[in-house]
Amino acid sequence: MATAAPPEFTATGRRKTSVARVRLTSGVGKIFVNGKEFSVYFPDDALRAYIEQPLNLLNAKDSYDVQARLDGGGLAGQAGALRHGISRALVEADAENREVLKSNGCLTRDDRMKERKKPGQPGARKRFQFSKR
User: Fold this and answer.
1) Residue 2: is its pLDDT beyond 70?
2) Where are the domains of the chain?
3) In the chain, what is the straight-line distance between the N-terminal and C-terminal CA atoms, in Å?
4) Minimal CA–CA distance to 96: which of 57, 68, 65?
5) Any idea which architecture 8-103 has in CATH?
6) Closest by alpha carbon to 44, among 86, 79, 80, 85?
7) Does residue 49 contact residue 82 with C-beta atoms inside 8 Å?
8) How far is CA 112 from CA 38, 77, 91, 119, in A?
9) Single pTM value for the model
């Protein structure tokens, strides 16, 4: 007789141009990002603390294993996307988590993106120097 697989929760998180596909399973608190150990992929302590915030708020750091696939953007954008994805997966795991995560801003999709460069200008807002004569 086959044993039942542990429950698995999936979610997608986004930030800037980064997308995180997160799979949450019951476990001991291991986090893997693109097949690498979490601390190897994100060497900065501040980013790691930011990503782990939803798990720490719910005291669930040692209850779940996280496997994530990150695409696009830089490290800061990917960290924001991963945090958003973990938060959404935790809500899928237990709907009662929603209130705590929402009040701490973990479920808010940060939609700030780089503004596009406009034609005839050197940047999005910057203009070429004006010359009267």
Assistant:
1) no
2) 8-103
3) 87
4) 57
5) 2-Layer Sandwich (3.30)
6) 79
7) no
8) 25, 10, 23, 22
9) 0.89
